[in-house]
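anyone seen this seq b4? input:
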Amino acid sequence: MILFLKNLLFTVVVPGFVAGWVPLHWFERHPRWPEQWQWQHWAGAAVLAVGLAIYLHCVWLFATRGHGTPAPIDPPKKLVQRGLYRWMRNPMYVGVLTIVAGEAVFFWSIHISVYLFCLGCCFHIWVLLYEEPALDYSFGAMYTDYRREVPRWWPRRPTPPI
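predicted toks r here
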């Protein structure tokens, strides 16, 4: 139960801020709910829902398989290599980026689109400078093998075990 609460707190504070508050209050200062939904509203809502599903799936795996949270101060105790993590190493970041992309489409906002690009660059730098070295330190050869087999950002069909 404590692990569930820690994951919920992290989700509300970090992705809630990065994918919710920042784009809707800094970059789209007066977002309005449309009276009549057009194609971009349906498309944006669908993209956002896919991103939310990806993110929640990853948090679930971190809690149930990794016995931890996405927070750097309480990372998973075990290397998560199941679910979407078999297809790419960073699906949680992709989920958050997909949520922001859905918002950009929904509001048809160039400002949120620019934020999306900058956020993707920040995620990439974070992964390169902090996350990958930390995972290498924590999991050693297991992470090295995982890194060799699974791409960082672009999904690839997992190779079947021999």
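The radius of gyration is 17 Å. The longest helix spans residues 110-139. kinda curious what u guys think
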